[in-house]
Automatic annotation (TrEMBL):
Keywords annotated in UniProt: ATP-binding, Nucleotide-binding
InterPro entries: ABC_transporter-like_ATP-bd, ABC_transporter_C-like, P-loop_NTPase
Gene3D superfamilies found in the cross-reference section: P-loop containing nucleotide triphosphate hydrolases
Pfam families: ABC_tran
Protein name as catalogued: ABC transporter domain-containing protein
UniProt source species: Arcella intermedia
GO molecular function: ATP binding; ATP hydrolysis activity
């Protein structure tokens, strides 16, 4: 009954709107100008303020800092997962990121790499080569078919 009450509260919340500008042009970047982000609308709530960030195409960015400094909130802001309270976020192109927590589906290594996509042998070979997985596969009895 308690879980049902929580679900009702969740479904009663207003629908979240992603306020980021997502563009499709030849210049790839992430740009946050004077961004303000908070998980709740309460003024006492922790959030990020005065965020200014520009990431150009091809840049590799590591977000580091002490515990509780807002690293996860910053990544959530870039991904559009935390409500923006002020400023602007412009995304041109796509974003790839690696979480600090490992995640995999209960399936073969190959299917974890494909994540539901059809097998394109050329692409798959490029990926496993770039990730240097072939030596690992050779150590496994079923190679990339190992669960």
């Amino acid at each position: 009954m308690v879980a049902f009450g929580r679900l009702n509260k969740f479904f009663a919340l207003p629908e979240y709107r992603d306020l980021r500008n997502v563009l499709n042009d030849s210049t790839k970047y992430v740009h946050i100008q004077n961004g303000g982000f908070s998980w709740t609308s309460s003024k006492d709530s922790f959030g990020l303020s005065s965020v200014n960030l520009k990431i150009e195409k091809g840049e590799l960015v590591a977000v580091i800092g002490t515990v509780g400094s807002g690293k996860s909130s910053l990544v959530a802001a870039v991904l559009g997962q935390i409500p923006m309270r002020k400023g602007s976020v412009t995304i041109s192109g796509s974003i790839a990121y690696m979480s600090q927590e490992a995640w995999s589906i209960n399936d073969t290594i190959q299917n974890n790499i494909l994540l539901g996509k059809s097998l394109d042998h050329r692409w798959y070979k490029e990926v496993v080569t770039a990730c240097e997985l072939l030596p690992d596969f050779s150590q496994l009895g079923d190679g990339d078919k190992t669960i």
